[in-house]
Amino acid sequence: MDFTYRCSLKPFNCTFLLLWLSHFQAAQSFTNFIFGDSLVDVGNNNYIFTLSKADSSPYGIDFAPSNGQPTGRFTNGRTISDIVGEALGAKSPPPPYLEPNTEANTIRNGINYASGAAGILDDTGLLFIGRVPLREQVSNFEKSREYMVRVIGENGTKEMLKNAMFTITIGSNDILNYIQPSIPFFSQDKLPTDVLQDSMVLHLTTHLKRLHQLGGRKFVVVGVGPLGCIPFARALNLIPAGKCSEQVNQVVRGYNMKLIHSLKTLNNELRSEDYNTTFVYANSYDLFLKLVLNYQLFGLKNADKPCCGGYFPPFACFKGPNQNSSQAACEDRSKFVFWDAYHPTEAANLIVAKALLDGDQTVATPFNIRYLNDL
Fold it and tell me: Annotated catalytic, 37?
């Protein structure tokens, strides 16, 4: 490795570095680099000026590592990435990139670059002011990679990234921005639906190729879920209980189909160059749709109303003035599909995460996340 040359220059430092590397390799657990939006943000938005924040109660009320204090996760407990990481041996979730003093985690167990309100397209989420678009998230990973090279060298970095997982969960905000009513001073002429879908896929594919160039080999790309079923979209379109907006879901399905085709092309092209490269498509659409329409089969009791916040604008989820959490959130959060008007509960995340880990090809293709991790 790259340590040999360093050893000849600074023997003491090299000995220390090799001892550290030996300890690190023995203790190394599941490593995940996470990109995306509020579905997987773990606190990056706490460090920027934005209207998209989850840094106040009752967000995080069921997140054990923080003793129920908000962390910036847009749910009551763990995200799907948190749950998958635990199942695959992660000692702790990757910290947010913008949190101070997290560089060492780049090598230890990965970094989370996700940002609430972010989209594939740079302009997505403009109404929320601050957010970190996918393009910038990839640039932040590039800076993390530079740190890795400084610590373990180019060869060590390549070897580590070859075994790490890259998880990308994004696209929901691009479509939500598209379907919501025009807002004065922020609205633009709407593109035809197929143009929006094509643009999203083109930009996402470009960013995936960049991550591959930087060393990523194991990718999990999560499709957009059935946004027509979330409380926000149902209220926006006056959809009755137990139903979803077919118009919104049609936009999502069209995008997902084009994304699947693009990932198949990437697998064919890039695996011919490096057989270690694999892009897994995670079918969150069908998983969440099945959960929403058949929630009782999963032991849940409500798939319409958000556990926290109202069913109509402004959909605010926050603790009441008496600081009694039961005034802000439903008492039994384990029985609700939706935490707020946009995001699922930990209970729903658990069901979906388990399916993505061990499900068949209808859930994840060409194979599930556990199989990808074992490659």
Answer: no
The tokens for 235 are: 């209220």
- Residue 364's nearest CA partner among 375, 352, 348 is 352
Report the distance separating Cα 190 and Cα 203, nearest Å: 18
Sheet hosting strand 364-365, strand order edge to edge: 32-36, 165-169, 218-222, 278-282, 364-365
- Token pair belonging to 172: 């929901």
Closest CA to 1 of 153, 158, 214: 153
Asked if 191 contacts 175 with a C-beta cutoff of 8 angstroms, the reply is no
The residue from 38, 172, 262, 284 that is catalytic is 38
Tell me: pLDDT of 1 over 90: no
119, 37 contact by CB (below 8 A): yes
Which DSSP state fits 189?
A: P
Question: Do 137 and 113 meet the contact criterion of CB atoms below 8 Å apart?
Answer: yes
Question: Whose structure tokens read 């060869």?
Answer: 155
End-to-end Cα distance, the chain: 23
Q: What is the pLDDT of residues 271-319, one digit of tens each?
A: 888 889 999 999 999 999 999 999 999 999 999 999 998 777 778 888 7
The answer to whether residue 340 is catalytic is: yes
pLDDT value of position 180: 83
How many C-beta neighbours within 10 Å does residue 164 have?
19
Reading the block at residue 375, the tokens are: 């490659």
Task: Answer yes or no: 38 catalytic.
Answer: yes
Of 144, 304, 340, 360, the catalytic one is 340
Catalytic residue among 203, 207, 212, 343: 343
293 by DSSP, 3-state: which? helix
Instruction: Give the pair of three-digit tokens for residue 121.
Output: 């397209």
Report the SS3 class of residue 212: helix
